[in-house]
Every structure is written in C-alpha cells, then in structure tokens.
Amino acid sequence: VPPGDFGLMFQNRLIVAYKRNKIAVSDILDYRTFDLTLNNFTINTGLNDTLVGVLPWVQDQFLVFMQKSIYLCYVETSNFTVGSAPGANSTITVLTTEIGCSARRSIVTAGEFVFFLSNKGVNMLTPQLDLKLVGSTKTLSNPIDNWMRRVNLKDRKSTRLNSSHTDISRMPSS
Predict the structure, then answer these.
(1) 125 compared with 156, residue with greater pLDDT
(2) What is the pTM of this model?
C-alpha cells in the first residue's frame, strides 16, 4: 500500500491519495496489492492544486476534491480480473475549476446534495436529472460572509460539517 494521507474503499478496491495530486487504485478484491505503473490516476496535471478529499458518488463514480477544483472519477469495473488495472474506459472529468474544498472533514452528503467548505464559505453541489453535478460559485454562507471571513480554515479540528446539523457555529475565529 503506498503511503497516503487518506483512502476510500470503493467497488472492492482501495483508493489511496498519495503525493500532491495522485490517486492509487488497488487490485480488485486485494486491497494490499498496488501496481503504481498501471493503477493510478494523476489529477489536474501541471496545475498547482492539492488533493483534499474523496467522496463516493453514484454507480462506479467518486468525487475528488482539490483545493481549487473538483473532479468526477469513473473506475470501470465491468472488465475486471484479479491483478488487472482499472479498465480502459476509466475517466476523470472536471466538474469545476472555480471552487475547491479547504477541509477534508467538511465534505458531506445530505440527501442528493454534496456540501463542503471552500475558501469562500459553505458550498453545495447539486445533481441534475442525468446525475451530473453542478456547482454554484455563489456560496450558501453568503448572508453571513462577514462572520465566515473570521473563521480559521487552517484549524483542521474546527472545520467539520455534519449531515444532520452544522457545527460551524463552534468554530474558533482567528
């Protein structure tokens, strides 16, 4: 297993974020075996962006949150054999390069919506009829923007949103 900051068990594979913008995918049904030559994705090549978190989405897709952008990854699972790389049809699609996520533990789902904390405030991704996600550049926390600017986003323990309620009121301000 490559040394990573965080991971996700997804479709009988372990997905591990390692380095600044790379995701490694384990072999099917063997979470301890990684082939970093074939079983990895490089997200946002060439741009100064860092992986923040991942979230399972629908079918064989998961969301990748970077500091300045958000991506949708599809890992093909129809053509799989033990010891094989992700399918040739696996893809990475850009959802937005206008907003990103500033805290891994702030990424939550509530029903069909995905909420997360960006450098601008609390944002939401909304699925359309075809289950494609659309993000608005206008933050949900716009009415309390003066207060949100005082929140210390670098304090990892304080930047957590919960799907049943929001504990943003307990965040220390700088």
Answers:
(1) 125
(2) 0.73
